[in-house]
Amino acid sequence: MKKVGLLLILLGLSAASFLVFAEAPTCPADLGGKCDDSDDWKGEFFAGIPKIKYEGPSSKNPLAFKWYNAEEEILGKKMKDWFRFSVAFWHTFRGTGGDPFGAPTKFWPWEDGTNSLAMAKRRMRANFEFLKKLGVEWWCFHDRDIAPDGQTLEEANKNLDEVVELAEELQKESKIRPLWGTAQLFLHPRYMHGAATSSEVGVYAYAAAQVKKAIEVTHYLGGENYVFWGGREGYQSLLNTDMGRELDHLARFFEAAVAYKKKIGFNGTFLIEPKPQEPTKHQYDWDAATSANFLRKYGLIGEFKLNIECNHATLSGHTCHHELETARLNGLLGNIDANSGDAQTGWDTDQFLTDVAEATMIMFSVIKNGGLAPGGFNFDAKLRRESTDVEDLFIAHISGMDTMARGLRNAAKLIEEGTLGEVVSKRYSSWDSELGKQIEEGKADFEYLEKKAKEWGEMKVASAKQELAEMIFQSAL
Ligand code: XLS
Ligand code: NI
Ligand code: NI
Question: pLDDT value at position 43?
Answer without folding.
Answer: 76
